[in-house]
Amino acid sequence: MKRILVSLMLLASMQYVHSQVEIPKISVSFNDTDLKEALSAIEEKTEYSFFYIESWLKGVKVSGEYTDLRIDEVLEELFKNTAFNFHIMDEQRIFLLQNNQIYNSLPKVFFGKEEELTDSEIEFEELENLAPLFVETDENDINKELKVVKIGKENKSNRRRTFTLTGKAVNAKGQPIPDLAIILQGKDVGTSTNVNGNYSIDLPAGENILETKGLGIQGSRTKIILYNDGVFNFQLNESLEVLDEVIVEANRDRNVETALTGVTLIEVEKIKNIPLVLGERDVLKAAVTLPGITTAGEGAAGYNVRGGRADQNLILLDDGVIYNPSHFFGIFSAINPYSTGLAEIYKGNIPAEFGGRLSSVFDITTKDGNTQKFAGEASIGPVTSNIVLETPILKDKSALLIGGRGTYSDWILRALDDEQLSNSTASFFDLIAKYNHTINDNNEIKATGYFSRDAFSITSDSIFDYSNRLVSLKWDHKFNEKNTGSLILSNSEYKFGIEFDGESNDDFDLGYKNNETEIKIKIKYLHSDKHKFDYGLSSKLYVVNPGEIAPLTSDSDVSTLTLAEEKGLESAIFLSDRYKVSDKLLVDMGLRYSFYAALGASAQRIYEDNAPRSSATLTEIEEFDKNEVIETFGGPEVRLSARYFIKPDFSVKASLNNAFQYIHTLSNNTTASPTDTWKLSDLNIKPQEAYQASLGFYKNLEGNKYELSIEGYYKQQRNLLDYKVGAQLLLNQAIETEVLQGDGKAYGVEFLLKKNEGRLNGWLGYTYSRSFVKLDSEFNEEVVNNGDFFPSNYDKPHDISVVANYKFTKRFSASANFVCQTGRPVTFPIGSFTFNNSEFVLYSDRNKFRIPDYYRLDLSFNVEGNHKIKKFAHSFWSFSIYNVLGRNNPYSVFFVTEDGGIKAFQSSIFSIPVPTITYNFKF
């Protein structure tokens, strides 16, 4: 009490003296001047002396020009963007204060005597300045050894009792730490960092002790003294404790706490033990082991998510679209695993910022380059080699990551159980480069370039090639403590070619290309603990060259043909609100409005009403000028999901969403292939639509040791693009006469049990799903299977995946991957007929039968190098056997007429065990 009374007397005396002094005016100017020098210059012009601790001023520079201003006005401007306050004691002394202020009086209610005040006095006091911020010192405080950080500058006119602390968490390499838990000690308050390591948390004024917890990151505790809104960046070290291996792991309780349904986060570093074909670490192949995601068969390109087609997946690499994510007949993905940081897969409720696809979004993020030191990772395998290098450009500010992967794969083709493939050649490579630069605390830019190319020859007279190319630029900007935004520019191109040089005079060179350019602006607004808004707009220009063919040699009889270019503009505006209704109920409400315009120049064919489209029913061809609007489509897309806590570790989630898709693939193959072309919606082709509802229950057991979830969904689709029997899809100027549009439906239940800790970890996934298509019309030639629903090409009712890893020691482990699936639908012959003395096949209804069920077991033994910290590189050996049981899983079954009879054939990709040794090292 004595100390408080003395302080009050001192404050009162300072107030009295200060009120008697006339503050002088001065004129000074500074240009990037050290603050200490600036204060010395003011002292020379006045009788004042400054009192401060010199270490406070180190590295602080000021600029400004001030003419005939009072000294207190000059100091207000000089200290505006610093943490300094000042107090003028008299005509001779000015005291600098860091963060806090000197108060001349205390509110009347400071000593808790509200009962002595009248109602009007209490109301006045509530509007008056808050009491000074006191930080008590207790010799017995167990937290007295903590690092103390003062944030913000105290302001007497600020009546807020809570302030917002924002910042970024990075590791020792300067790389962002996602999903780091930041918790206020002793309070039920916390947050987590996003994928870029950024966070925001509202804290009470004064002393706060923040704890950080994260997988593979050393925990920390920091005492924050908060005077106002401010920024604090965490720089944390990786944990030196060797943790049990976790294959796929989100942050703690994320599966239970988030509102979105059907979301999976894959960290590439955690999937290295999954035994995959030919020892290649592969983020997309790892995704297939999870419920709800599958492929049409072994080696198939493209992915089917919850009964959707392969073209209904939006695959993004640093915000740029990849149209064909496969290498080597679908055996490898085209995403370099060593340059990839995270992959977030949305298969249920898709965030409002994403659009243009119906089934899923694979949002893949390349890791940032190391801004601290040169680093890298590489692997050598039997089919591919891979290397990624990271180097600082400006230490602690910018870095460059470059990576490349190539193959020497001809030997593996010769070992396959397929005569055509065994006589084939194939090669591929992909390159990636990323530059990340932190300009200041408020601005960061990232640029990515990617290119991949495949070339293969299945027969001696044909060479196929295809490539992906993308560039993207992202500028992240922090407007203030509550508003951050991103400006994204991207361009993607996919093209393929066929070069045929046979013995006859029909040599040709065929090419196809599509290109898209997008600009997107998205803003995050942290309104409060209850409301967090995301909003923005985007616009994407599609340019599709449907194909061209030209004679390869002068002797060729092939005529030159070039199909007219197609253009379309897809734009959208979106808004979402993450609304915390209560501690138990969290609602994620999103609305996206998309608008699409098909653009000229184009010649659109008009057909007779109430008649099937064919050359016989063509009535006219309407010409449209360059960039003239041909047709428009669009509508609202609702993205609604909610989470309710039944218990703190047990939640129920539900979602409802719809989407439009304005671009379609043209294919009569079972799966996506390099020669699939894309078709934009226009006068004759309507956009696809989908509506999906889902409901799920999520439970964590023994903390986060076990995760258990079960989720069901139902999906309806409209205007799915399919083909007529015998359709010619490539280089067809009237493609609308060869395709059909119909309805689809899909439903299923997904079950996942995951063990995250212990010597044995991994997961068990089971999916029961059905996918159907209905092609009905008033015209018989456009009806398939009598207009009834029939199974889609990728309908697989039962799908079981088991991924397990057992650690014998810190260096030795064994892994297993088991897959069992229902065989996909096929169309079988049910009879035959004779024509011109040859027997031909009469086929059943489309997809009435199934090929045999698929199952496969893979095993691997993994050896890590010693765990010495000071060594050039850390190594990792993987000895794996793909298809241990030697199961001859059929990829397809087909029938041909040969020598006057019908013969059945079955093709398989890997019908024998395939051993692999892969060496990985990281430095």
Please outline the major beta sheet: 22 strands, antiparallel, barrel
Integer-rounded radius of gyration: 33 Å
Give the CATH topology of the largest domain. Maltoporin, Chain A
- N→C terminal distance: 60 Å
Structural class: mainly beta
CATH architecture title of the largest domain: Beta Barrel
What is the tally of helical segments? Answer: 8
Mean pLDDT: 83
The gross shape turns out to be elongated
Number of domains: 3
What is the CATH superfamily of the largest domain? TonB-dependent receptor, beta-barrel domain
Structure in words:
By secondary structure, the chain is mainly beta. It has three domains: 2-101, Phage tail protein beta-alpha-beta fold; 147-235, Carboxypeptidase-like, regulatory domain (Immunoglobulin-like); 254-922, Maltoporin, Chain A. 7% of the residues lie in helices and 52% in strands. It contains eight helices and 57 strands. The strands form 13 sheets. The chain has a 22-stranded antiparallel β-barrel. The protein has a five-stranded mixed β-sheet with strand order 6-12-11-8-9, with no helix packed on it. It is elongated.
